[in-house]
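Project outcomes to date are best conveyed with an example. Our students and postdoctoral researchers have been running inverse folding experiments weekly, and each run begins with a structure described purely in tokens. The record below, which covers 438 residues, was selected by the lab manager from last quarter's runs and is presented without edits.
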């Protein structure tokens, strides 16, 4: 879930300025449903920032149970640069956000933690480091040079030492003295020493392919990766809109595909089901699609039409941005796009778009017959009285909207057969399949 962070920002296309308790209620309602929908061995990630993290943690403890708290991950989402520098003396610059992670059960395990192994960002050269020059030959015939020599001999133009080491890590060994064999070594005659020098014997210590003995020292292969914990410092900076991922522009809160890739990779397997009901530009859905997961995405704003849906169509056509190259995405697959059948929502839209009193009268007549009216309004008499007639056009619109019961914005499934709503046969069948009703 990537909900509005409640930053108080008015510039967003969606509401990001809730009163604090309204935001918590809004989240509570949605998290309770999320928990209900979650599989028994499932996991939920919710992204937020300093505005609500502490409160959201308490809320999620309550809903998911403290024993099901998995992690609070700090994700580096930006760098200290740009506009936010103007306040650098007042507070430290904010470059991280959080992922609150909860499971449904406490025996939860991640599906695959490999993506959490990341390349080290520096390489401390050891005096003893060796580089195998003829790695593809039989290990018995290997010969070495020092890593320093290898830099001079084999490093590509423009390559850094770290890049060289990461590219060649299988050929690089730090070796560790094996005390007992060292003693034996000293007992060897000079001839024998000569025989073994620069020769490698395969030394299968723990079943790994890369343990060898050299001059009776145990060679430990260089490991270029470390396990990243709950602080994710990769290149997760929000891409911005200059080179828009997924070939759609979405300036407020669009997440980078590699971040979602990591989440989906560690927590799901192919064909698992991913739910994102704050879809925005559809990053989660695009990534899930490219990673062969099934998904359901929901978005409230009309931009679902020309941003979210369009992005997914491009994915199906084989769009090559974001993680496509990494997962060798070639296109394919399909999706079903549905909209909730409007009831009161349709009237709200009509009232908002209405431009004259005549039209408003017609809407009012239709609304009396078909809309669901808030139980507190007495629409039959209120609207006939003189006081209402004397209101300004905008006031009338506001009051008409207020009379509508917002719990009935959409037609409930239970009323699908009601002839009044004229639901076609195809839609009825689709809904029965979706709700698994026979
Ligand atoms: C931070 S954005 C999600 C961005 C998305 N992860 C992406 O990468 O594009 C939050 C989304 O939640 C949606 N949303 C759903 N219900 C909302 C509500 N009641 N109030 C505000 N936003 C809501 C917004 O319309 C917005 O698209």
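After processing, the design step wrote out the following sequence:
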């Amino acid at each position: 879930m990537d909900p509005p962070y409640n930053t108080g920002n008015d510039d967003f296309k969606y509401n990001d300025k809730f009163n604090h308790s309204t935001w918590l209620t809004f989240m509570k309602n949605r998290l309770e449903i999320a928990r209900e929908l979650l599989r028994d061995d499932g996991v939920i990630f919710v992204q937020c920032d300093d505005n609500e993290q502490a409160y959201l943690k308490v809320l999620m403890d309550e809903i998911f149970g403290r024993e099901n708290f998995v992690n609070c991950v700090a994700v580096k989402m930006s760098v200290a640069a740009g506009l936010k520098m103007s306040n650098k003396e007042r507070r430290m610059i904010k470059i991280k956000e959080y992922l609150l992670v909860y499971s449904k059960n406490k025996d939860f395990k991640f599906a695959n933690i490999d993506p959490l192994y990341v390349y080290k960002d520096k390489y401390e050269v050891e005096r003893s480091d060796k580089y195998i020059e003829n790695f593809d030959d039989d290990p018995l015939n290997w010969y070495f040079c020092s890593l320093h020599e290898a830099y001079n001999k084999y490093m590509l133009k423009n390559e850094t030492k770290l890049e060289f080491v990461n590219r060649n890590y299988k050929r690089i060994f730090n070796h560790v003295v094996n005390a007992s064999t060292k003693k034996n070594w000293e007992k060897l005659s000079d001839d024998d020493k000569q025989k073994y020098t620069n020769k490698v014997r395969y030394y299968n210590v723990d079943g790994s392919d890369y343990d060898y003995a050299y001059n009776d020292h145990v060679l430990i292969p260089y490991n270029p990766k470390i396990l990243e914990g709950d602080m994710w410092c990769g290149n997760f900076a929000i891409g911005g809109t200059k080179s828009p991922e997924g070939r759609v522009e979405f300036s407020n809160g669009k997440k980078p595909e590699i971040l979602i890739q990591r989440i989906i990779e560690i927590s799901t397997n192919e064909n698992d089901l991913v739910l994102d009901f704050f879809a925005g530009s559809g990053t989660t859905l695009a990534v899930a699609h490219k990673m062969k997961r099934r998904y359901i995405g929901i978005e409230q704003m009309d931009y679902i039409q020309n941003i979210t849906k369009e992005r997914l169509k491009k994915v199906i056509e084989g769009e090559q941005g974001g993680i496509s190259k990494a997962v060798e995405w070639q296109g394919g697959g399909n999706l079903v796009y549905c909209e909730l059948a409007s009831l009161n929502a349709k009237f709200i839209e009509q009232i908002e778009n209405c431009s004259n009193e005549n039209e408003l009268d017609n809407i009012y007549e239709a609304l009396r017959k078909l809309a669901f009216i808030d139980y507190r309004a007495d629409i039959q008499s209120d609207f006939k009285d003189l006081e209402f007639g004397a209101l300004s056009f905008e006031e009338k619109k506001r009051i008409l909207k207020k009379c509508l019961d917002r719990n009935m914005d959409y037609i409930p499934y239970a009323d699908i057969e009601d002839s009044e709503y004229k639901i076609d046969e195809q839609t009825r069948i689709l809904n029965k399949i979706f709700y698994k009703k026979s």
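The pocket of S-adenosylmethionine is lined by residues 2-4, 14-15, 250, 253-255, 278, 280-281, 283, 299-301 (CB under 6 Å). The CA atoms of residues 383 and 403 lie 11 Å apart. The training component of this project remains on track.
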